[in-house]
UniProtKB/TrEMBL annotation, chain A:
Listed Pfam families: SBP_bac_5 (PF00496)
Alphabetical list of InterPro entries matching this protein: Peptide/Ni-bd, SBP_5, SBP_5_dom
Organism: Homoserinibacter gongjuensis
PANTHER family xrefs: PERIPLASMIC BINDING COMPONENT OF ABC TRANSPORTER
Signal peptide: 1-34
Protein name: Peptide ABC transporter substrate-binding protein
Origin organism lineage: Bacteria, Bacillati, Actinomycetota, Actinomycetes, Micrococcales
Domain Solute-binding protein family: 82-420
Keywords: Signal
TrEMBL record, chain B:
Family annotation (Gene3D superfamilies): MetI-like
Keyword Membrane among record annotations: yes
Keyword 4Fe-4S on entry: no
Entry protein name: Peptide ABC transporter permease
Length: 503, 288
């Protein structure tokens, strides 16, 4: 099966077609469908809430559910490339501050009521009114619905990356409130049959879906947070799809003949910011030396053989604005010398924080390499809530996260996190600010690429962080599951899934 | 058949030769020996990792040519080193927790039993209140709220652990305060603190020693439990519980990460438990 990006019509259809030709060895006329079209999916994070607009709008679980239940206006299919979902066409004005979307004909919600531009506008206003994490992408925006099929978004200034930012914006009926999301009405491929928050979400096809109606009779998203339990469930066939496995598990799953394993490129970069507002590491020379002191090549080949590859930029190659930089070579002796030259105080202990268990080993390895040149590091595993609070308060010296670029656009990563006003990295540089401001205020793609390239060069050379690794996301699924649309953001598409009879 | 019949007789004879409880005592002695002198022979630093040598099976040799008789963990650290340094951690914590609990428990318990009245009421109610909480839950709360360190773990485990000692010594003190020689000492005018120390506590020591051995096993187990939950010792120290927790994700592929510390932990806890049972039978039997 080829790697297909999350597109509803074209790629989905292509996936089915290739799956059919692959499975042709069993029958002459393609795969026979199993009688039971039920798919159980193991999800690592809980789905607590189905309201895609409010406080949980950035939760992975809510986003995964929203993908199946609701529809968005447009969908990315690659860097700077988009495809319409609810929208048939869209047009920015000259400075990309006013965007006009035209909806498809005959859209209806799962309860047979028509989906009009008024619903889109009301949904957008609801996002702004609830002031959840999603709304921070749309500060100062206004929306209007001049007629039933037209929606107009007006940004306070040029907003060339709007399509990317709209990736997580889904449309609900205009008259929803927080009580409407027990069994929400949507326009996605599925509707909710049963929802147990934090545990299972059972979905059935939506007969009013604007695309091709799913073949699946039942799609069940089950939360299984423990990795070992999820892997066992996958191997025993209790669930048929899982993703986000650590490398050790990927290697093990590859040995199972019933499973198909595929690691696809994501746009996430392992990002280890070094807090420039900490006096001990305020000097770019010190930060460069720390980066140089870590043997990332060995770390990546030993710890991430399946899902990692050495990075050469702040954003992934698939992102608009990517510009390759000179890799930082491992040289502990030079690093130690540079630290001594810069007058680094070796008695300081650097606080290295992380929250997700996937970083436990890499943080230890990094701390070990730094200890070898005499830099003391205290590795701190923090609970998610504490981690977030400390992260925003800059209460750390080194921080590790996977940082992606929503909508494949550097604006959502570099443009959002690195201006002085963002206060996210402790780093502040007027030249960088000016470049980012210029990149954010023009609609010209080539100019934006150039500005971001310059900005990334500054970030890389001043070592605002260490950027060691591009990541892949591993998916594993049972071989009788066809048409799964793998997505780099961990929100696979299930609309085109079919289950073939086992041979 | 005859062989089967004769076997029990032989076993009985052989155990009669050695005082019962010798074998667990020898095993515990070995752990102590390893914890005390092991670190002189095996160097291990939990901070230093070597990811190139990760998950080597037992009996391998690291890239740098060092033997790894028990294999390595997920970041390439020596398992043998973790076992030895982990033994040291476990014993230090076990001894400290039992020490603190025994001193506090015996003091409060004998006072409650000897003085009765208000002292007894307040101490006994405090014990009742603490008994209402499961000890490990209390420890989890304390260890969870405070920063991770060895001192916090010792305190967290001691908070609920002294109760057993206090109840035991209260019971003994309660019965001994009525004995003629205690009455005599009181009438002669021996001051209360001295009386407690000279005439009551010596009778408490035996049963407390027996209880201490059992509690020692429980303290070690609780520390491993806390570290397993990520609430115990900081990652920069070595703990069997932590290693077992880390090994959980490799159960299918690298059994040795969890298995060796698990075996070491059970060996120590079972031996301490057996020895405790023996001591209880011997030391409390003599009391009457």
């Amino acid at each position: 099966m080829p790697i297909t990006f999350r597109t509803r019509l074209m790629a989905g259809a292509a996936a089915i077609v290739t799956a059919a030709s692959l499975a042709a060895c069993t029958t002459t006329s393609g795969p026979t469908l199993a009688e039971d079209q039920e798919l159980a999916v193991g999800v690592q994070y809980p789905i607590e809430n189905l309201d895609p607009h409010g406080a949980s709008s950035q939760d992975a679980g809510t986003q995964l559910a929203a993908e199946a239940i609701f529809s968005q206006l447009v969908n990315t299919v690659g860097p700077g490339k988009f495809e319409g979902e609810l929208a048939e066409s869209w047009e920015p004005n000259d400075d990309a501050s006013v965007w006009t979307f035209t909806l498809r004909d005959g859209l209806t919600f799962s309860d047979d009521s028509p989906l009009t531009s008024a619903d889109v506008a009301a949904s957008f206003e609801r996002v702004l009114a609830l002031a959840g994490p999603l709304s921070s992408n749309f500060k100062g925006f206004t929306v209007a619905a001049p007629d039933d099929k037209t929606v107009v978004f007006t940004a306070p200034g040029p907003e060339p990356a709007l399509l990317g930012k709209l990736q997580l914006f889904v449309v609900t009926p205009a008259d929803v409130d927080e009580n409407s999301f027990g069994e929400p009405i949507g326009s996605g491929p599925f509707v909710v049959d049963e929802f147990v928050p934090g545990s299972t979400l059972r979905l059935v096809p939506n007969p009013n879906y604007w695309g091709e109606e799913p073949t699946l009779d039942v799609l069940e998203l089950r939360t299984i947070p423990e990795i070992a339990a999820r892997m066992t469930a996958l191997q025993t066939g209790e669930i048929q799809v899982a993703w986000g496995m650590p490398d050790d598990q990927v290697a093990m799953l590859r040995e199972n003949a019933d499973l198909q394993v595929e690691a696809i490129e994501t746009n996430a970069v392992m990002t280890m910011w070094m807090n420039s507002s900490t006096p001990a590491i305020a000097d770019p020379a010190v930060r460069r030396a720390l980066w140089q002191a870590v043997d990332f090549e060995t770390i990546i080949t030993s710890l991430f053989p399946e899902t990692g590859s050495p990075a050469d930029s702040v954003v992934a190659p698939t992102v608009l604005g990517y510009a390759p930089q000179e890799p930082v070579a491992y040289d502990p002796d030079a690093a130690k010398e540079a630290l001594e030259d810069a007058g680094f105080d070796f008695s300081t202990t650097l606080r290295f924080q992380y929250s997700q268990p996937q970083f436990a080993e890499v943080t230890q390895a990094v701390a070990s390499d730094l200890a070898k040149i005499g830099v003391k590091v205290d590795v701190l595993e923090k609970e998610q809530a504490v981690f977030l609070e400390d992260l925003l308060a800059l209460n750390w010296d080194i921080n590790i996260q996977m940082i992606g670029s929503q909508g494949f656009d550097a604006a959502t990563n570099v443009g959002r996190l690195y201006p002085c006003a963002a206060h996210r990295t402790g780093y502040c540089n007027e030249e960088l600010d000016a470049l980012l401001a210029s990149a954010g205020s023009t609609g010209d793609v080539e100019k934006r690429e150039e500005y971001y390239a310059q900005a990334i060069e500054i970030i890389w050379n001043d070592a605002v962080g260490m950027y060691p690794m591009f990541t892949r996301l591993a998916y594993a699924w049972n071989k009788n599951v066809d048409g799964l649309v793998l997505a780099p953001d961990g929100r696979p598409g299930f609309a085109s899934v079919t289950i073939s009879a086992s041979n | 058949m005859t062989k089967l019949l004769t076997t029990p007789a032989r076993t009985r004879r052989s155990t009669r030769g050695l005082p019962q409880g010798t074998i667990p005592a020898i095993i515990i002695g070995l752990y102590v020996l390893v914890a005390v002198i092991g670190p002189m022979f095996v160097f291990y630093d939990p901070v230093i990792t070597s990811v190139g040598d990760r998950l080597l099976p037992p009996g391998s040799v690291s890239a740098a040519g060092e033997p790894r008789p028990l294999g390595t963990d997920g970041v390439g650290r020596d398992m043998l080193g973790q076992l030895i340094y982990g033994a040291r951690t476990s014993l230090i914590i076990g001894v400290s927790v039992v020490g603190i609990s025994a001193v506090v428990g015996v003091l409060l318990g004998t006072m409650a039993g000897y003085f009765s009245g208000w002292a007894d009421v307040s101490i006994s109610r405090l014990i009742d209140v603490l008994l209402a909480f499961p000890g490990i839950l209390l420890a989890i709360i304390i260890a969870g709220v405070l920063d991770r360190s060895m001192l916090v773990v010792i305190l967290a485990l001691s908070v609920a652990n002294w109760i057993g000692f206090a109840r035991l010594s209260r019971g003994i003190a309660l019965s001994f305060r009525e004995r003629p020689w205690v009455d005599a000492a009181r009438l002669v005018g021996v001051p209360s603190p001295l009386l407690l120390l000279r005439h009551i506590i010596p009778f408490v020591i035996g049963p407390v020693a027996a209880l201490a051995t059992t509690e020692f096993a429980l303290a070690i187990l609780s520390e491993a439990g806390l570290s397993f939950l990520g609430l115990g010792l900081p990652p920069s120290s070595v703990s069997w519980g932590q290693t077992i927790a880390i090994g959980r994700s490799y159960l299918g592929s690298a059994w040795w990460v969890s298995a060796f510390p698990g075996i070491a932990l059970s060996g120590l806890v079972i031996s301490a438990g057996l020895l405790g049972d023996r001591l209880t039978a011997r030391l409390t039997g003599d009391r009457r």
